[in-house]
Amino acid sequence: MDLRDIIKISNTTQDFVPIKEIRNGVAVLKDGSLRSLIMVSSINFGLKDDNERAAIISEFQNFLNSIDFSLQIFIQSRRLDIRPYLAILEQKRIEQTNELLKVQIKEYIEFIRFFTDTHNVMTKNFFVVVPYIPPILNVKSGGVFSGLFGKKTTASAAETANNNFEENVAQLNQRVNVVRGGLSRVGLRNESLETEELIELYFKIFNPGETGTPTTEEAPPANSNQPRN
Q1: Residue 43 C-beta-side C-alpha neighbours within 13 Å
Q2: For the whole model, what pTM was predicted?
């Protein structure tokens, strides 16, 4: 999936966005590194007793000590969009034959609309970003090889990632499995985001004013009789 299918921005702004493409459930950055996102549930720590809190903290410490790579914890806070719910209620009100229930549904809709307009009702999603930076060959000018061959020998990170994409994804998935196992032992439910889910997430991040979701369907190659996936 090309970046332009996700982000509705100008060329100038696009230069500042690090994502090159999304495929196979992986975000490929412009520098050739990979990112996988894990959506994680939350725990109401305040409702746990002392023993449960100590166990959670201990298990989380063990999890952090078991990994030898960096992680990023990302919390997405968004104002709750109540419009789809109100649309369902309005449809129910129209279909209702009982006049008293119609009035009650209308009053309930007005109450929900007033409450959300006067209170900052937020929804939060929690993610863990797992990175993988492929090994690269980057012999800079002035080095031994440069002197021997008379020119720079440079293989960009992006080229290396493209040529060894499957191998790099396998390495990334090993890290993802380690992280998911550690989060499960802490008591946190988690799920890796697939391609369509990543596209929808990034679409909403880069297009906060959009209420819809991007289409991920791609046209088949020319002169192909294969159906669309």
Answers
A1: 17
A2: 0.63
